[in-house]
Amino acid sequence: MKNIVAPSLLSSDFSRIKEESERLNESSAQWFHLDVMDGVFVPNISFGLPIIEAFRRHTTKVLDVHAMIANPDPYINDFKSAGVDILTVHYEACPHLHRTIDAIKKAGMKAGVALNPHTSVSLLSEIIQDLDMVLIMSVNPGFGGQKFIEHTYEKVRSLKAMIDMAGSRTIIEVDGGVNLENAPKLVAAGVNALVAGSTVYKSEDPLKTIEALGNA
Ligand code: DX5
Ligand code: ZN
Question: Which of 35, 38, 64, 132 is catalytic?
């Protein structure tokens, strides 16, 4: 089975959202990965709801939103209205995670939880059954183009064991420094969805790179 590939649009040209969406619509990428950063939870500000809406107007692919924001709860319905399919919030930003996940699902989206590199997957043991996805950060969130943290493989393996033991259908996504060299190892460890920013955008032929990641 092919891996899900989610190109990270953080490094795309936002003055050309229509053209960029049309190009990716022709690719084998199943998802568009959209990184929302608030300058509080992470030391960077990216974009918000109007940009998500703009991508929604030009694609029918799954919009996979990675919310790197300190307080996602008041915006859950806004993300849904903007056309989001999967909303991932950070474990470290949600003191009432169960309530947040419940609200995301009730709004009609798939619910994901992202873990920073220092956050143990074991902290999800009581909620894994309720999660559609877990996003393992393989860099510290905030910027594209960073170096992949090798400890990620171990985290993916522990998470996969937890999911299997719970008999859950939770998807594992990895984000940060993903490339053609580490992708096959991540897939072997149990990853289902690969986020890739620089690897796609800095390659000579982004569509071919997406295809290669899908077959990794
Ligand atoms: C980083 C973002 C990533 C980023 C990935 O905080 O969550 O999605 O765009 O970029 P690369 O693939 O270049 O590490
Ligand atoms: Zn991301």
Answer: 35
